[in-house]
Amino acid sequence: MTSAEPNVDAAAGRNGGTASHSPDHSRRFLQLLRISRERLVDLVAYGTYLALGVLVMGRLWLDPYNRVLTGNEDDHGLHMFLIAHSERVVFHFENPLWSERLGVPDGVNMMSNTSMMALGIPVSPITHFFGAAVSVVLLLTLSLAGTAAAWYWVLSRHFVRSRAAAYIGGLWCGFAPTMISHANGHINFVAHFLIPFIVWRALKLREPGRTVRNGAILAVFIVLQIFINEEALLFAAMALGVFVVAYAAMRPAEAKAALRPMLSGLGVAAALSFVVLAYPLWWQFFGPGHYRGLPYDPDAFVTDLAAYPAFARQSLAGDPATVEVLSNSPTEDNSFFGWPVLILLAVAVPLLWRSVAARALLITGLFFAVISLGPTLVYKGEDTGIKLPFWLISNVPVIDLVSVTRFAIVATFAAGVVLALAADRIMSLAPDTTVAGHRVARPARIAWWVALVAAFVPVAPLPAPVRGVEPLPDFIASGQWRPYVPEGRTLVPVPLADVTRGRLGMRWSALSDLEFQAPRGYFMGPADPPGNIDGSWGQAQRPTSALLQDVYRNGVVPPIGEAERQAAREDLIYWRAAVVVLGEQRRVDALRTAMTELMGEPPQRVDDVWLWDVRDLPVPPRD
C-alpha cells in the first residue's frame, strides 16, 4: 500500500506513456478494435477469475437442484433459504427484515441471520424463474471471481503500477485457501468484493476539501456491506484501525495533518449510514426473534499455528489427514497459506521495508494472524496453554461474538496486497539496475515469477466436493400440496428441518421459493422465548421433533404410547399443521412406522410422498 492516493505516474503511463514506443502489429490490431492493451489485460484478468470461479463450483453447476456441498450441507441449505427470502421480498412484497416461512409460529429475524439482501435482491429474478439452487451457485461463483476482480481493480488503479502485480494480488485475495474453504456454503464470506473499495475509500478520507463527498461514498459501501456480511465490515474497520495506528506511529506529523479531514469524513459516513441503518439494526438487536450471544463458544474456533504453513484440503497439495487435525471444519480453513507462500512473504519484507505504508500493512497482517490464534496457543491440535494477545480482548463486546479463526481472513487479504506490492517493486526495477557490477533487474524478475508460480501451484484450488441428494418430491414441485394447506396453516416435513438432521425439509422450502410455511428449520434465533433468548440453532425442541430426529439418526423406532400420541397432537396444533409429509429418503421405513404410530393411522400415498391430513386439528389464535 504505497499510497492512499491514485498513482498519477501509473495513470499517465496508461494514458500516454507508451507513445514513445513504435507500435507493433498487435498494437495496430488493438487500435483497430479501439481497445488498449491495458483494457485487454483487464478483460483477461476478469475472464480468468471468472473461469476459476466456474472451475471451483463446477460440480455444483452440473446439477444444482439435486446436489449439495458436502463441506457444509447445513449452511448450503441455510443460504438457499436466505436467497429464497429475497425473492419473496421482491415478488411478493414481504417484510425484508422478517420471515414467517420457517420457524412457525415464532418466525425468523432475518437481520439476525445475515440475510444477504444486497446479494439476494439483485438475483431475485433468477431465483424466481430458475430457483434458489441456481442463485446460490451463481452467487458463489460470482463472489469468488468478483472478490478477485475488485482487489485487482483497486490495486491496479490506486496502489501499484503493474497490472501483472495487481493480478497476483487479486488472484490470491479471491482464490486463497481461505476463500475456497468458505465457498463450501458461506456466500457471505466469499462475497468480499466491497471490502477493497471500503479500504480504498476510507483511506481517501484524508483528502482535505472533499469531506462530504468522500464520507458519502464510504457510507454507500458501508450500507451495502451491512446487507451482505456485518462480520466482514467489522474486520475491515479493525484492520483499518490497526493500519492507521501503525502508520501514525511511524509518520506522526503526516498522521496529525490527516487527522481532521479523516475524522470529519468518518463523521459524515457514520451519520449517513445511521440514517439508513438505524431501523434495520434496531430490528436485529431488539426486534421480534432477536437473540443474545451465540450457541457456541467463539474461542473454541481458533487457528492452529501449524495450519499457516500447511496446505488446505481443497488445495492441490492438500493432505486431508493433516487438515483434519489442524482445521475446525471444511468451511473454516482460514489460514493454510502453505510454506512456499510464507517464504515468498518473508522475501517481500526486505523488498518493501523502505515504504512506511507497506510496513504498516505488514504489521496489520501479522497482528491479525496472531489474534486468529485465539487466547492460548494451539499447535498440531494440542492446546499448549500459552497465553496469546487475544486473551486480553477476548471478552470485549462484539469481538466476543466472532469466531476467532476468521480473523485470519484479514491476514489473507493483507498477504495478497503484500504480494502485489512486492511484484510491483520487482517489476519497477530499472533495466540497468546493478549490484556489485552485475545487472540484476531481469534475473530478479525471472526469479520472482518462477518463485511465485512455485508457491501458488501447491495452493491451487480444487473443485468444491458435492454429493447427490434426494430430488424434490413431485408432490411439492408440482404444487399438489396446495389443496392440503390452507392460508395460515403449515406443511410439516418428516423429519422436521433442523441443524445436522432433516436437511431435506429445508431444501423443500427453499426449492419451492418458500411458498408454504413450515415449522422449525436451521437458522439463528432465541433458544426458548420469551424466557430464554440466548442464541440457538433454530427453535426449542418439541417432543415430536426430537423423537423423529432420533429415528432419522438411529433408524430405531422407540416405544410409542398414548403420552407420545398426545404430545404429537399438541405439537401439530402448536405448529399450525395442515398436513404432515414424508418423502423418499434414508430411514424412510422407520420414519413412516414412527409417524403412523404417533398419528394412530396409516398415511395416504399421494404421488411420491406419504402424508397425514390433519386439517381437522384446531388452529391456535395468533399472539
Strand content bin:
5-15%
Q: Could you say how many structural domains there are in total?
A: 2
What is the percent of helical residues? 40-55%
Rounded Rg? 27 Å
Distance between the termini: 56 Å
As laid out across the biggest beta sheet, the strand order is 9-12-14-13
What characteristics describe this protein?
4-stranded mixed β-sheet; about 625 residues; alpha+beta; about 55% helix; disordered N terminus
Describe the secondary-structure layout.
Elements: H1 8-17, H2 25-32, H3 37-56, H4 58-61, E1 67-69, H5 73-92, E2 98-99, E3 108-109, H6 117-120, H7 124-130, H8 132-158, H9 163-175, H10 177-182, H11 187-190, H12 195-204, H13 211-226, H14 230-250, H15 252-286, H16 320-326, H17 339-352, H18 356-371, E4 376-379, E5 382-387, H19 408-427, E6 434-435, E7 438-439, H20 441-456, E8 466-468, H21 474-477, E9 490-493, H22 503-511, E10 524-528, E11 532-537, H23 543-554, H24 562-574, E12 577-583, H25 588-599, E13 604-606, E14 609-613
Parallel strand pairs: 9-12
Antiparallel strand pairs: 1-8, 2-3, 4-5, 6-7, 10-11, 12-14, 13-14
Helix pairs in contact: 3-8, 3-9, 5-7, 5-8, 5-22, 7-8, 8-9, 8-12, 9-19, 12-13, 12-14, 13-15, 14-15, 14-18, 17-19, 17-20, 18-19
